Amino acid sequence: MKPTHLTLICHARTEAQRVGRFALDDEPLLEAPGPLGELSTAARYLSAPELRARQTVEGLAVTVDEGLRDCDLGSWKGMPLKQLDEQALQLWLIDPQAAPHGGESIAALCQRVALWMDSALAEGEWIAITHPFVIRAAMLHALGAPLASFQRIDVPPLARVHFSHYGQWRLRLV
Fold it and tell me: Which keywords describe this protein according to UniProt (predicted)?
């Protein structure tokens, strides 16, 4: 059995990130990110379906993968954090099972990402452009960390997280 290597790259910066609001599915980038640096020519490339992820990798041959889609934030899409009901936001921040926005809970997102990591990738090298929430969920899965850790991870634009899998997922620092 050969190992699987997965690099998750966060999409480039959006206006939503700049002003502190949840993104819309068709949220564009503030500006083109430029070259993503040294990327493997042997890797297979994937992208989340949202516009901001696809724009981050314009010019590369990528396959859009629904498993990398962002968390469905329901009625909170496009909403500034300051305009949300404070009680509902606090519930969402402390209870991974909560979905006061009517969309996907953090627990459901983490389960979806874990299933994707465990079943969607063949052996070899993969590079995927996705979202901060998806990267957080992948980190929790690889580490076997509790869902309560989700809100303690910051993933800035264009951040990279490396994983390897040979019998189990491992977080790989480079």
Answer: Hydrolase
- How many C-beta neighbours within 10 Å does residue 138 have? 24
Fold of 4-167: Rossmann fold (3.40.50)
Residue 174: C-alpha distances to residues 40, 162, 163 (Å): 14, 8, 10
| All structural domains of the chain with their residue ranges | 4-167
Taking the alpha carbons at both ends of the chain, their separation in whole angstroms is: 23
HSE at residue 136, side-chain half, CA atoms within 13 A, is 22
Cα 159 from chain centroid (whole Å): 11
pLDDT of residue 48: 97
- Look up residue 34 and give its amino acid: G
pTM recorded for the entire structure: 0.94
Residues 114 and 49: their CA atoms lie apart, in Å, by 18
Q: Note the pLDDT tens digit of each residue in 79-117.
A: 999 999 999 999 999 999 999 999 999 999 999 999 999
User: Vertex 166, ends 62 and 124: CA angle to 5°?
Assistant: 25
